[in-house]
Every structure is written in C-alpha cells, then in structure tokens.
Amino acid sequence: MTINSILSVIICFIIPFQILSLLISVRSIMFSYFRSDIANMCFLYDIKNSHSIIINGKDSAFDFIYQKLPSSREMIYSFKSLKLENWIDEKDILELKNGIKNPPQKNV
Predict the structure, then answer these.
(1) Looking at the domain assignment, is residue 67 inside a domain?
(2) Domain limits at 60?
(3) Is the pLDDT assigned to residue 88 strictly greater than 80?
(4) Do 65 and 96 touch, CB atoms closer than 8 A?
(5) Phi, psi (degrees; rounded to nearest 5) at 28
(6) What is the DSSP letter of 104?
(7) Is residue 8 part of a domain?
(8) Do residues 100 and 37 touch, judged by C-beta distance below 8 A?
C-alpha cells in the first residue's frame, strides 16, 4: 500500500466515524441533562401536589409524563431537538407547569 492509499482510507473511513462518535457523545450528554430536568419537574410537581396525589388519587407526574417518554436510545438517536414540546403532549406540559406554579389548595 502506498502512502496515498493509506491517507485516503483514513480520510474516508476513520475521520467521519470519529466525527459521528463525537456528535453522538454530545447528544448523549445533552439528553442526560434534558431527562434530568424532566425528572426534577416531575418531582417538584409531586411534592407540591402530594396532598392531591395521596388523598384524591390524582396521578403522579411520573405517571403522566416521565413514563410516557420514549426509550433513551430512541431519544438519543432521533433528529428531534430536546425540547419538551417535541416529546410530551401540550396538555401534559400545561398540567405539569400549572401544577408546579399553582398547587391545589388543601381542604382541611
């Protein structure tokens, strides 16, 4: 093999593979922060609405948001951006955000 053929193999196969690996690594890190943010929002919702969840049998945010999310692999390898609107229904997003801002009043 000549030097030119070795360089062409490197340019054609190894460099694109390295670039793709880097992009997937960055997407995986972004995904972990995104999924963590969703889990934190669900946790806040459940804390602020714990009375309704325990007494009235209202669904936990982990039931109506987190468990409906696609698999990790599907989210990492998808071309969709990591925004709530792309992965969760608008109705569920509104319920989550309203539950965090304005928890229901406790009837004592």
Answers:
(1) yes
(2) 28-101
(3) yes
(4) yes
(5) -65, -40
(6) P
(7) no
(8) no
**Rounded to an integer, what distance in angstroms lies between the CA atom of residue 58 and that of residue 53?**
4
- Give the Å distances, CA to CA, from 105 to 41, 49, 89: 19, 9, 26
Determine, yes or no, domain membership for 34: yes
> What is the pLDDT at residue 86?
94
User: Residue 31 carries which side chain, given as an amino acid letter?
Assistant: F
pLDDT digits (tens, 9 = 90+) for 14-72: 888 889 999 999 999 999 999 999 999 999 999 988 888 888 888 888 888 888 899 99
Number of domains in the chain: 1
> Residues 54, 105: contact at Cβ < 8 Å?
no
Q: Which of 49, 63, 55, 65 is nearest to 105 (CA)?
A: 49
48 within 8 A of 99, measured Cβ to Cβ: yes
Q: For residues 47 and 95, give the distance between their C-alpha atoms in angstroms, rounded to a whole number.
A: 14
